[in-house]
Amino acid sequence: MSTVSPSLDSMSHGDAADRAQARLAWARAASGDAALQLERASMDAGFRSYWRAATGGGTRIVMDSPPALEDVRPWLRIRDLLEAGGVRVPQVLARDVEAGFLLLEDLGGETCLQALARLDAEELIDAAIDQLLRLQAIAPPLDLPAFDAAMLRRELALFEDWFLGRHLGVTLSVDERAGWEAVQAHLIESMLAQPQVLVHRDYMLRNLMPVVGGVAVLDFQDAVRGPVAYDVACLLRDAFHSWPPSQLAIWLDRYHAKAQGAGVPVPSRPQFQHDAALTGVQRHLKVLGIFARLHHRDGKPKYLADAPRFVAYLAAALPPHAALAPLARLLDRHVRPALETVS
Predict the structure, then answer these.
(1) Assuming Cys at both sites, which of 18, 59, 111, 221 could form a disulfide with 106, CB separation 3.0 to 4.6 Å?
(2) What is the tally of structural domains in the chain?
(3) H-type alpha helices, the chain
(4) Are residues 116 and 96 in the same domain?
(5) What predicted TM-score, i.e. pTM, was given to this entire model?
């Protein structure tokens, strides 16, 4: 889950009006349709915004990425990298990089998360795994950021600072802090020891679109070089939908077998299961911190409704790992009682 929270709506009224006028003029010129109108297509895209337009050639999406707020070139760079590796990504039909406008194919208004209501989950997950394997087969550029110890520690700090501290009002005791530091060190060591591949960082159903022949991948601009278990842990322990543990085990084994066949550098099955569990713990903690920050800093309270999902993920993952016992005690003492009070 991206940590970029501000939106285009945070621009001043005058600037937003000027931007809207420029966006419409560019879209009309790029599409060749002087009567084209734009409607908001999606929200929560950082400073980028997406707009849908009906044209004579079908509907199109306009991406608006104000240059002073969010450079569109990193998005384009990763998009081109993924497409060259065979990953299904949105097609770019026209671009003005300096102005921050792109004209994209319209992949529809329904994400794979929304499509669960009508499509077969097995087929969706299989298609998502197949796209993930294509992504992981791409050699990360040498200058791509690394999911290194500093980045992992910054993400874990979100849990302590925003979820425990700001949201629950918890100040760790000396013993609790020592245990928390040991847990962080264990998670970071585990993730850095894994084979390193191209990592999407938010590979979940909300960022995948059902298309003919499989799924298309969105929201890839924060890609890094990092642990091989990260994206599949993200996919199977989705931020907004939970699966039965028995089903998760089947899909994780299926991914591992396919990854071995595709030449993705996964370790042995037992080691990979261990790695995926610990990688999931790190992500669950990060997401809890992000959800709390979205609520308290950005005025977006809806995300915290999913906090119990991540506490449940943690409760299932922690018992087999003695090194994570201090985290289990933190949950028992501070987190579960607070969530039970709220509910």
Answers:
(1) 59
(2) 2
(3) 13-31, 73-84, 112-115, 121-136, 149-158, 174-193, 230-236, 245-262, 269-296, 307-317, 325-330, 336-342
(4) no
(5) 0.91
